[in-house]
Amino acid sequence: MATNNTLRSYSIIPCFIFVELVIMSGTVLLAYYMECTDLFSVHVQGFFCNDAELMKPYPGTEESSFIPPLILYCVVAAAPTAIIFIGEVSMYVMKSTREALLAQEKTIVTGDCCYLNPLIRRIIRFIGVFAFGLFATDIFVNAGQVVTGGLSPYFLSVCKPNYTGTECRFNHQFIVNGNICTGNPVVVENARRSFPSKDASLSVYSAVYLTMYITSTIKTKSSRLAKPVLCLGTLCSAFLTGLNRVSEYRNHCSDVVAGFILGSAVALFLGICVVNNFKGIHSATAKQKTEDYRGLPLMTFPRVESPLETLIRCPKACWETPLTGVRSSPTRFSTGRFLLICRMQRH
After folding, report:
1. How would DSSP label each residue in 286-331?
2. Cα distances (Å, whole numbers) of residue 341 to 325, 329, 330, 331
3. Is residue 119 very low, low, confident or very high in pLDDT (cuts 50, 70, 90)?
4. Residue 200 contacts residue 259 (beta carbons within 8 Å)
5. Contact at 8 Å (CB) between 299 and 24?
6. Whether the Cβ atoms of residue 196 and residue 258 lie closer than 8 Å to each other
């Protein structure tokens, strides 16, 4: 039998298995096909042979970058997961925060012997939503790169067009033929996937989501600067990741800014609209406040006649009847005199 701290539900496990896991699996598969296969061809964007913005030196492969993709993706995925797990376990173990946690979450009873602890539910919810947003951000970035075909700053260095040929003979001739490039086709195709910046999007998504979790759940009474330093350090790391892409001529400034906007938008949407600022679903505090307001006694006041009602009900004769013994001017009419005339006419 369900008590005040428990809630009976027979649909939470079927919904998790047949709805949420299916959506998550489809998202992961779509991200895999867009990232690791050639199922979606990149749009071939035209260019000028003497465009100075596309003639930066080739910085080398992605693995030779100051922040290699493998290390970046591991940190982006593992750091928020570890901090959320440690934070939830710590709040559940500590007595000072456990009562507030149990007040926000209820134990779900799915059968006669199946109980879902609030700690497990919160960990699965927050980490699951974070993983979904990470794959969704990767899908958005790959879709933007495939559709736009943005050229990297080093595109002409790897494209190696024939400057003595017919296409590049004139300086202001726009080239729309993708077969003009004589460089490595794999490197040239990667150079066409610059907008938006994937590293900037994933890093800022992870940083914003983690910052929202820290500011919403972790309470530090003894130190006022520990939480701001941790949050600002996380955001600064994402910002430096974007700057590194620009300094190595791997992305334009506009590519990095677009990546920052995309990652921040996904993190804010999931943090505010999906996980409710990392608050409990069954919050007893808000319900208690609502019941307290409903139980307040009502105070009644006697009805007082407004002067406006007197003005509305006053007959037309009030405007034409002179007041005996009072000198009046045709250009000035006192409000008090008008109300006095109206009362005399009514009586």
Report:
1. HHHHHHHHHTSPP--------HHHHHHH--THHHHPPPTT---BTT
2. 13, 16, 16, 17
3. confident
4. yes
5. no
6. yes
Residue with tokens 């997961």: 81
| Cβ–Cβ < 8 Å for 142, 41 | no
Closest CA to 80 of 227, 242, 219, 205: 205
At residue 325, φ and ψ (nearest 5 deg) are 85, 0
Residue 207 one-letter amino acid: A
Tens-digit pLDDT profile for residues 264-275:
999 999 999 999
Any idea which residue has 């990232």 for tokens? 35
The torsion angle over the Cα atoms of residues 74, 80, 84 and 90, rounded to 10 degrees, is 80
List CB contacts of 207: < 8 A, sequence separation 6 or more: 234, 235, 237, 238
Distance separating alpha carbons of residues 243 and 236, to the nearest angstrom = 10
What's the Cα-to-Cα distance from 111 to each of 107, 119, 123, 216, rounded to whole Å? 12, 19, 21, 32
**Residue 178 backbone dihedrals phi, psi, to 5 degrees:** -75, -15
Q: What's residue 288's pLDDT? A: 47
The whole-angstrom separation of Cα 152 and Cα 145 is 11
The answer to whether the Cα torsion of 248, 250, 255, 258 is positive or negative is: negative
d(CA 93, CA 5): 18
**Torsions phi, psi of 327, nearest 5?**
-80, 130
Q: Could you give the angle at the alpha carbon of 173 between the alpha carbons of 176 and 151, nearest 5°?
A: 50
Cα 33 to Cα 134, 142, 144, 224, 260: the distances in Å are: 15, 10, 15, 46, 24
**Is the sign of the CA dihedral 267, 270, 272, 275 positive or negative?**
negative
Q: What is the mean pLDDT of residues 319-339?
A: 49
pLDDT at 95: 63
Residue with tokens 């736009």: 148
- Supply the DSSP string of 90-126, one letter for each residue: HHHHSHHHHHHHHHH--EEE-SSS-EE-HHHHHHHHH
Secondary structure class of 223 (helix, strand, coil): coil
